[in-house]
Amino acid sequence: MPTELENSIRSAAEKVAAYIEDASSMEVKTFYVLTSASAMPDLDKERPGAYTMVQLDGDSKTVVPMREGRDGGLELDGTLFEIHERNVATATEYRARVLNALIGLLQQRGGR
Question: Can you give the pTM of this predicted structure?
């Protein structure tokens, strides 16, 4: 009959396995809302600004925010993209820390 500790470990291992499966792909979406000097922004009308998807095998896809320039050509919305890049870096760091912590726990458990 499994002990409470064994059940807890089994439950934690199932959660770790689910997290690792979910961690095989990371998506970061950055949205924006239109603002004006005369009205409060409607936060329910967010619009996609940039998108990045990174898979565990290193494949990635990024959609960058472009706008029409004064000359009619396209130009990168640099400010929005900088915010998005910070969001991607934060998500990547967080994912790495969590995966490293999980690996450390598994290594500790395996060494006992």
Answer: 0.71
